[in-house]
Design brief:
Elements: E1 4-9, H1 12-24, E2 28-32, H2 36-42, E3 49-53, H3 57-69, E4 75-78, E5 92-96, H4 102-111, E6 119-121, E7 127-129
Parallel strand pairs: 1-2, 1-3, 3-4, 4-5
Antiparallel strand pairs: 6-7
Length: about 130
């Protein structure tokens, strides 16, 4: 199942490579520069996952704030940033060290439920595919 992914990465070369790989797998990828304003502009619509490679504490704080105010998709943290994340509400799906294990990364993406826009709330509180 194809996913809608927000990709935030500080290294432009890695960002381009990840974009090519993920779109090559058929996913819709929204790329945000690693700054708070760019990430905030990208936090719209139904995202299935955020892939974050940024040591910027302000970005993490902005994502935590969004997580408490709105639908927050799971986050895959690259480069071991979990220690920088407080218990502020981010749903951390995985923490992956560099160099990135690409097959494992793609497997994690593939296992995600989604796309977020294809689920409809049901009266019993569960979501089902449309």
């Amino acid at each position: 199942m194809k996913k809608r992914i927000l990709l935030v990465n500080e290294d432009p070369a890695v960002r381009r490579m990840m974009f090519r790989v993920l779109t090559g797998e058929g996913h819709q990828v929204i790329v945000a520069d690693p700054d708070v304003a760019s990430v905030r502009r990208s936090l719209h619509g139904d995202l299935d996952v955020i892939v974050l490679d940024s040591e910027d504490g302000q970005i993490l704080s902005a994502l935590e704030k969004w997580a408490t105010q709105d639908h927050s998709p799971p986050t895959i943290l690259l480069n071991g940033q979990a220690k920088a994340v407080r218990s502020g509400g981010l749903k951390i799906l995985a923490v992956m060290e560099k160099p990135l294990d690409l097959p494992r990364f793609l497997e994690i993406i593939q296992r995600l439920p989604g796309p977020a826009s294809a689920t409809q709330p049901q009266p019993n509180g569960l979501a089902s595919a449309a």
